[in-house]
Design goal:
- The chain is an alpha/beta fold.
- Helix content is 31%, strand content 16%.
- It is built from 17 helices and 20 strands.
- Strands 1, 2, 3, 4, 5, 6, 17 and 18 form an eight-stranded mixed beta sheet that branches.
- The longest helix is centred in the last third of the chain and has 21 residues, at 446-466.
- The protein is globular.
- The protein starts with 14 loop residues before the first strand and ends with a helix.
- Bound molecules: 3-acetylpyridine adenine dinucleotide (N01).
- 3-acetylpyridine adenine dinucleotide is lined by residues 64-65, 152, 158, 173-174, 191-197, 199, 214, 216-217, 337, 358, 363, 386-389, 442, 501, 506.
- 3-acetylpyridine adenine dinucleotide binds next to helix 5.
Length: 554
């Protein structure tokens, strides 16, 4: 969509109460809330329009794996009553249209500068202000900076020898062209078998003359069972939205309303357990992992769910050798984000689709006309990298962020991200992260977590203004305790057993630390609310040179 509003002009003297980095769902709602409270704000967005991850991830088959009636803003009743989602899982163009509608409806674009990357964010201890430098050469100052940069917005291209010599078309699912891509009649290779690949492979297979899927690690996927939403289904949500939203925020660990399990997987006899798995498999979707309350805690319990999925794969895929390769065996189900698909496994029954097991036959190099593994040469006209993201910290790391004492955030996070509540990092006053590492973020319905963080941050800034306090900063001891708590909760689960992007394991050299907070969105919200109610316990408030005066709570 073309952006109609003129960019606000910059001059070196521009000052805002708040600079927000990113105009995805987090940045848009943050801007709206700041305006409601009378703060001046400027949003910088690298893309040409709003939408964040939904602006960049335009690959074939891209859609949300959280149901559309739940993957939507709750802050405006008119909005949730009036917007019509067409399908159970919204396709990417519809989510992007929704983001555009929200931007129009709340007049957001006039304070968003598009096509502009934030290069550096520097804290001036004398003025207690941040100086923000952007790719158009402008410099502005702000009292607060809020990073709404997204958890999965830094697409990662692996380093493979010969990549620059490939003469065909190259794509990355996380940075897909805006013009339509047509694979008709082409020999296409897809590298990766995560969520993005699993959504796009069935569609690409319908177009390509030949599709070769290069798989390093098989992934667990459950059927989406996508379907058009009926007017009655939409109305059932609309009539009950207050209670549905309350449950999502308070009762559900992951912010998605679903029936809650009352027992563990080993508490049921085999036949009962199988029926329960089958019921969730048949109804489809991410809630498969919610059949029992110990699937992410107990390896034996987890094995029952993993075996069930492996059996379904064996049923669907006709060639037993291919089925075996598609059956994940290297990690507990759910320890990597479970995928949600439409006909993924059945796609391997097509005569034009081939699966290459990179564990047995690794990629050697890319050639001008294709890809060479240790044993084979695959001729390709197009290569699709579905190789994921430098998740959670990647987009923050691209910005030079310099806090107190010339410390950069990258240096501070060299051994892994350190935050208090996933919201702030000690030494970086008045700098907030929305859904940052150390918060539930990617383990939850992102919009539930985004709204919670934005509301908390806006209230916090409002509190500071109302109390004539210039700054807020995480207390280092509180941060250390929180980091230890996040880690301890993760270690009590099966999640750290997978080489996942949750752990940073997909990026060579990245410290392997479980980044999101597993405690659940309800528990986490309560912790954040309690901290605020106690005068921002664990934060230092006020001018930093007089921390004792104002640190009533620490
Ligand atoms: O990325 P991934 P993604 N050679 O990191 C492989 C969200 N999402 O874009 O596992 C060969 O999961 C890698 O192999 P391995 C969702 O949260 C949501 O698919 O490292 N292969 C893996 O198979 C999701 O979890 C939706 O061995 C290489 C794949 O590439 C997250 O985004 C839709 C390789 C990367 O999988 C990321 O998903 C899509 C190499 N050098 C995504 N490097 C929704 O529906 C990497 N791989 C909302």
């Amino acid at each position: 969509m073309a952006v109609s509003q003129p960019h606000p002009s910059n001059s070196p003297s521009d000052h805002f109460d708040v600079v927000v980095v990113g105009a995805g769902f987090a940045g848009m709602y943050q801007l709206h809330r700041l305006r409601q409270r009378g703060f001046s704000a400027r949003v910088y967005e690298q893309g040409g329009d709003v939408g964040g991850t939904w602006y960049w991830n335009r690959y074939p088959g891209a859609r949300c794996d959280v149901e559309s009636m739940q993957y939507s803003y709750s802050f405006s009743d008119e909005l949730q009553q009036q917007w019509d989602w067409s399908e159970r899982y919204a396709p990417q163009p519809e989510i992007l249209a929704y983001a555009g509608h929200v931007a129009d409806r709340f007049g957001l674009r006039r304070d968003i500068q598009f096509n502009t990357r934030v290069g550096s964010v520097l804290f001036d201890e004398a003025t207690q202000r941040w100086t923000v430098t952007t790719s158009d050469g402008a410099r502005v100052t702000a009292q607060y900076v809020i990073l709404a940069t997204g958890c999965l917005s830094n697409a990662r291209m692996p380093e493979i020898d010969g990549l620059d010599r490939f003469e065909g078309q190259i794509y990355h699912t996380g940075n897909w062209p805006h013009a339509p891509v047509d694979f008709t009649g082409l020999r296409v290779g897809v590298i990766g078998t995560g969520s993005s690949a699993i959504q796009s492979i069935p569609i690409i297979a319908e177009q390509a003359s030949r599709l070769t899927v290069f798989q390093r690690t098989a992934n667990f996927s459950v059927p989406a069972r996508n379907a058009p939403l009926t007017a009655e289904e939409r109305q059932a949500f609309r009539d009950n939205y207050p209670e549905i939203r309350r449950k999502a925020r308070q009762d559900m660990r992951n912010g998605i309303v679903q029936p809650l399990p009352d027992r563990g997987a080993l508490d049921d006899p085999d036949a009962v357990r199988r029926d329960k798995y089958l019921a969730r498999w048949t109804s489809g979707g991410l809630t498969f992992m919610g059949v029992y309350n110990n699937l992410t805690l107990d390896r034996h319990a987890n094995d029952t769910a993993a075996d069930f999925i492996r059996e379904r794969i064996a049923e669907i895929v006709e060639d037993p050798k291919v089925a075996r390769l598609l059956q994940p065996d290297s990690h507990p189900v759910g320890s990597k984000r479970i995928c949600v698909d439409t006909d993924y496994y059945a796609t391997f029954n097509r005569p034009n689709v081939e699966l290459v097991d990179l564990r047995a036959d690794p990629i050697a190099c890319i050639l001008p006309d294709g890809l060479r593994t240790a044993n084979q040469h695959y001729k390709l006209d197009a290569l699709v990298f579905a190789t994921g993201f430098d998740a959670m910290t990647g987009s923050v790391a691209k910005i030079e962020i310099v806090g107190r004492g010339e410390m950069t955030l990258n240096r501070k996070w060299a051994e892994g991200p350190r935050t208090y509540l996933g919201l702030m990092s000690a030494g970086f006053p008045n700098l907030f992260v929305i859904t940052g590492p150390g918060s539930p973020s990617v383990l939850s319905n992102m919009i539930v977590s985004i709204e919670q963080h934005v509301d908390w941050i806006t209230d916090c800034i409002g509190y500071l203004r109302d109390n004539q306090l210039a700054s807020i900063e995480a207390n280092r001891e509180a941060e250390d305790r929180w980091v230890a708590h996040v880690n301890e909760v993760a270690q009590g689960t099966l999640y750290p057993q997978a080489n996942s992007w949750y752990m940073g394991a997909n990026i060579p050299g990245k410290p392997q630390i479980f980044m999101p907070y597993i405690g659940g969105v309800g528990v986490y919200r309560q912790i954040c609310d309690d901290v605020a109610a106690k005068g921002y316990e664990g934060f230092v408030l006020g001018a930093p040179e007089q921390p004792k005066q104002a640190a009533a709570s620490s």
